[in-house]
Amino acid sequence: SKSSELELSQSELIQVRESIEAAKSGESALVLAKKNEFNEITKALAEAREQVLENGKQLLTWKEKNDLNKAELEKLRAENTSLATTLASNNSKLELSQCELTQVLEDIETVRSTEEAIRKELEYAKIEVAKQQAKVAEISKTLTETGKSNDATCTTIPETSMRQKLEIFNELEASLRKENKLLSEKIVEVTDELKKTKETTRDSEIVAFENQIKFLNSIIAQKQEKENHLMQELQRKEKISYRKESQICKAETRPRMYCDICEEFDKHETEDCPTQLMEESDIAEHSHYSSSSTKVKPPPREYCDNCEEFGHDTSACEKAKSRKDYTF
Judging by beta carbons within 10 Å of its beta carbon (0-12, 13-18, 19+), is residue 291 exposed, middle or buried? Predict the structure, then answer.
């Protein structure tokens, strides 16, 4: 009987050893599985960290490019302002030159009118001189004929009367010649003044101003086109930079747990609040909802993921709006 009991004990011992071995092997498999799972999680975490670092580097690169674009944009705006100032100055000069040209043209027209009037007076004076000369020639001829037949004509035309008429005609001829000379001098003076006025016109200067203004307008158009292109590129980079920065911020930080019912941080979220599963009697016994309290359950508080603060929602965040403000 003892031998049978001994054999039974040995068989039980063998079974116990097998059970222990099986348990060890099962535990080893579980530990190995947990180790593999831990290694996978560690690997995924390392990859996530590398991705975060890579996103940070890329974000820094975008920011540097963004700063360069802003500097170039400011430079273009300064050049644009300078060109606009130069254009305004040239426009003022052009307006002044146009006013001067208008005045010169009016002066030329006045001189031409005066010249035409003088020419008419001169023509009239020439006609009068010709008439007087004809009369003088006629009188001279009459005097000559009278000298030849003095005796015959003495009774009809007295000599003293003829001499007086001759003196009057001589004085009239001298006066007309003097007036003719004055008119000729006036014509020469007006002609010289007209030539001088024509020489002082600024046609070439006005054309130069107009060409310079056209050139400046073309430069301003090119600068404006380049500025618009840079603005579009800057807006596109700002949007990409903002998205990546938001992703990194969300990956690195999470909002604190907060319960709107208990009004406490870092314990549980509102949807996980145990008071939601309590009966009314249990809720009444809750410290925050005692019978002495008449406080009504408040609405959910607004929380901003960008500022990590309560008081406003993420969609109404001024910080996010300011990032999209592209006025510099």
Answer: exposed
